[in-house]
Write a structure and sequence with these properties.
The structure is a single chain. The protein is built from six helices and 32 strands. The chain has a single domain, classed as Tachylectin-2, Chain A (5 Propeller), CATH 2.115.10. It starts with a helix and ends with a strand. With 398 residues, the chain is mainly beta.
């Protein structure tokens, strides 16, 4: 994720002689060496947890009130109102059997928004559809301002006629107002009616796809929330409000001081082969291996919590690979992808716990992963302007 400058800077720079760890100056490789396995390795999940902290109860009255103030919508409404057309794959993937599409020219080239997370209706339901259609959701973060995160609602029911519309994520701040969600949104995972959005330092934010609002047009593209009696969203006509969150104690930092340090929530994916369904989250470390992958159980709409609202992970692992941008798992197989900047092709690694990884080539700048089991395809998207596409590679897991 080439634009992760806010969160990928290590202490100083990895080009410096070293980093400070435990009060001593050590080289970056030395700092992480003790924690980096040579293969995908299972580790104790006990140090990690997330807590709901009453967030759903906090947001519920705000959303109920705003439901009465704004026109409501649902996923079918947004898809029916899609205002942009995708294009057939317009950049070379270099991968045999690849399928997918390119964004409209303006979205392909813009330096203002960078695409990151990707999930599909095959994650959301066993039948592979939502609102009666095959749908993809892709996150973008605002790289040049404070407009936050937008989600592309992509109608992929007919791959030869891809239509989509951008929707802005918002956080209700009171019973009468909301604000933009200013996070990186490096990964998204869709299970049931809930969209889980990775919040790098804190954990996971939750959005209910049954609740969307329509907002007023804004030629200035500068207004957000309630302004002069109307609701705006930087000229986005639909907003998706946050309904809850699952957060950890402490926040991530890199390089990590120990394997028990707080996690970084850089990307995530749904695994429908487990019972219950799980979401696997993972970390991006720049130039350092040892990223942790953690599996969280889903219970209906929401993660599975105990009586105190705490979510305990069902498993955790460490990867030997550096610069990971996405993870997918199914039937005991794991995929992770690595970006190598804006001029070098990415890598897709496949492994099982304790096994030797195999690798294959991906286009430049691969991001979040999603596995479509029924089609035997791993989906991702590329982030750099002028070469952006959403694409799948054929691969059978499990």
């Amino acid at each position: 994720m080439g634009m992760r400058r806010r969160i990928t800077r290590l202490i100083g720079s990895l080009s410096l002689a070293g980093v400070l760890l435990g009060g001593a100056l050590v080289a970056p490789a030395q700092a992480a060496a003790a924690q980096v396995p040579t293969r995908l390795t299972e580790i104790s999940a006990e140090p990690y947890s997330l807590a709901e902290n009453g967030s759903f109860e906090t947001y519920a009255p705000r959303i109920a009130s705003l439901n009465g103030r704004l026109a409501g919508a649902d996923v079918a409404d947004v898809l029916a109102d899609a205002n942009r057309a995708g294009r057939s794959l317009c950049h070379s993937t270099g991968v045999s059997g690849a399928t997918g599409f390119c964004w409209a020219t303006g979205d392909d080239n813009t330096p203002d928004w960078y695409p990151q997370g990707l999930t599909g209706s095959w994650d959301a339901s066993a039948g592979g559809t939502y609102a009666g259609r095959r749908v993809m959701l892709a996150s973008w973060y605002d790289a040049t301002g404070d407009r936050g995160v937008r989600i592309s609602f992509v109608d992929y029911d007919d791959p030869s006629d891809v239509r989509y519309r951008h929707v802005l994520l918002v956080e209700p701040t009171s019973t009468t107002n909301f604000r933009a969600v200013n996070i990186h949104a490096g990964g998204v995972a869709w299970a049931g009616d809930y969209l889980y959005v990775m919040d790098t330092n804190r954990g996971i934010r939750v959005f209910d796809l049954r609740t969307l609002w329509r907002t007023a047009g804004d030629t200035t593209k500068s207004r957000i929330g309630l302004v002069d009696g109307q609701y705006y969203a930087h000229d986005y006509r639909y907003v998706l409000p946050q309904v809850g969150s699952y957060t950890q104690t402490g926040s991530c930092s890199r390089p990590v001081s120990s394997v028990t340090a707080p996690l970084c929530f850089s990307y995530g994916a749904v695994d429908r082969s487990t019972s219950p369904v799980t979401i696997v989250t993972g970390e991006y470390y720049d130039g350092i291996g040892g990223a942790r992958l953690v599996r969280w159980p889903v219970a209906g709409n929401g993660l599975a919590t105990d009586s105190t609202g705490v979510v305990a992970p069902t498993a955790a692992y460490q990867s030997p690979h550096t610069n990971l941008q996405g993870v997918a798992s199914y039937g005991g197989d794991y995929l992770v992808d690595r970006s190598r900047g804006s001029s070098t092709r990415g890598i897709l690694y496949r492994s099982r716990v304790g096994g030797t990884a195999t690798s294959s080539s991906l286009p430049i700048g691969p991001e979040d992963l999603s596995y479509q089991a029924a089609a035997g395809r791993a989906w991702t998207q590329s982030e750099y302007p002028g070469s952006r596409m959403v694409f799948s590679v054929p691969i059978t897991l499990g």
